[in-house]
Amino acid sequence: MNPIERGKITLDVWRARGGTRAEIEARQRRRLVEMLSFARQQSRFYKRHYADVSDGSTDLTQYPPVTKSMLMEHFDDVVTDTAITKNEVDAFVADETKIGERFLGKYPVWTTSGTTGEPGVFVQDETAWTVSDVVGDRWILPAMAGISPLSRLITQNLHIALVAVSGGHFAGAAGLELMRRESVYGERRLRLFSPKSPINDLISDLNQFQPAILEGYSTVLVELARAQQDGRLSISPALVLPTAEPISEAQKRMLRDTFDCVVRELYGATEFVPIAVECEHGNLHANTDWVVLEPVDENYQPVDPETPSDTVLVTSLSNRVQPLVRYDLGDSITLYDERCPCGSAFSIMEVGGRQGDVLQFEIDGGAKVPIFPLALSSVVEEVPDVHRTQIIRTAPTTLQIRFDVTPDATKEEVWKHIEQKLQSFLRDHGISRITVEAASETPQREKRSGKFRHVWSELET
C-alpha cells in the first residue's frame, strides 16, 4: 500500500475515535455494503453460498454463517486472487524459513494453532494489515503522552517485547518478524520471547533486553509480575499489553501496581486481529468501524445486550483477499449498550472462553515452576500429524493427553512422539517424575460454548 492510502486509513481510524455512535455506524454500514457486494461478485464460494440472498441485501441475518472448516475446505474458491491456492499456501506455511515473508511477495499469511478445533490459514491483504497495525494506536497512544511513559519509552530505546509461541506462521510471531524485516528500526527494537522457555531463562532475557513495551499471553505476564515482586525480574516498561487469554480486573491491577505503568488489554483473533482494545476506564471497546460482531446463541440467533453469547459471528470489513462474512469465531462475548465514562461511542464488550490453567509443578528443593497453557499445548500441536489436543492434569504428577490425528497417521506412532516431546519439554524446565498418559477419549467440546479448552487441572486449588 502506498503511503497516501495508508495515511487515509490512519486518519479515518483516528477521526472515528471521537465520533458519535451514528458516525461509527455509518462507517460500518458503508464498508459492509462494499464488502458484501465485493465478496458476492469476486469470491466463487460466497457467490454460491449466498445465491438465495436477495441482491443488495444488507440484512446479515439473511446470510448463512460460515465456519473455519468450510473456509478451509473451499479455500481456493473463497480467496479472490486466483493466484492463491491452498496447496501453495500450505507449502509456504510449512516452511519456517519463510516466517515474516509475504506470500507471493504481497500477502501476510497467519495460521491458527488448532487449540479451538481445526487449524486454519488466513491470508491478509494490505488494507487488513494496515488496519491491524493502526487501530490499536487510537486507544493506546493517548495514554502514552504523559512525562513518565514518554521518559520510559526513550530510556528503554523503544524496545518492544512480544511473548508468543514461535516456530510457525502464527499472527503474533510472524507479524513481529514481518515488521522486523520491513521496518528500519524493527530489527533492533522488536524481539520475540517464547513462553516455552524455562521461566528463569525468560526472566534473564527480559532483564537483558529491558522492554519499553511488553505484550504477550496474560498468564505469562501475571507470572512475570510475580517475578518482579520477588526481585528476580527488574524491568520498567511504559506499557503492558495482556492478550490471547482471559485476564481478570484483579490481575490487570496487579500488573499496573507491579510495573507502575499503563496496562491495556487487547482482544483479537488470527482471523481479525484488532477486535477490541481497553480504554483508560478498563473497558474493552469493539472496533466496530472495521468489524461487525454478532453475539449469537447455539442456533445462531441473536442474544440480547448484556447476555453472554454461545459464539460470535465476525464480519471483517477490511480483508478482501479472503473475505470473512458471518464467520463463527467460537468465542463467547457480551455486548453492552451503555456509554463508557471515557466518552467513546464504541461499544463496550466482555470476552469469555479461551480458558486455560497455569500448571504449577514442584521441582527438586520444593520450589514451584509455572507451565503456561499455550506453551504446553503448542508442544503437542507441533508433533507431526496431531490434529487437535487437550491436556488435563489429573494428579500432582500426572498429565493426561487427549488427541486426534490426521487420517493417514497411526495413533500409536504419534503418541510416542507426543510423550517424548512433552517429557523433554518438562525436563528443560527442571520438572521430572511426571507421568504422561494417553487418554482413551478424543478431545471434547464444552457443552455450553462448543469450544475446546486446551489445558486445565482437575486438582483442587
UniProtKB/TrEMBL annotation:
Transmembrane segments: none annotated. It comes from the Archaea. InterPro entries: ANL_N_sf, CapK_Type1_Caps_Biosynth. Residues 439-461 are annotated as: Disordered. This is Coenzyme F390 synthetase. It comes from Halalkalicoccus jeotgali (strain DSM 18796 / CECT 7217 / JCM 14584 / KCTC 4019 / B3).
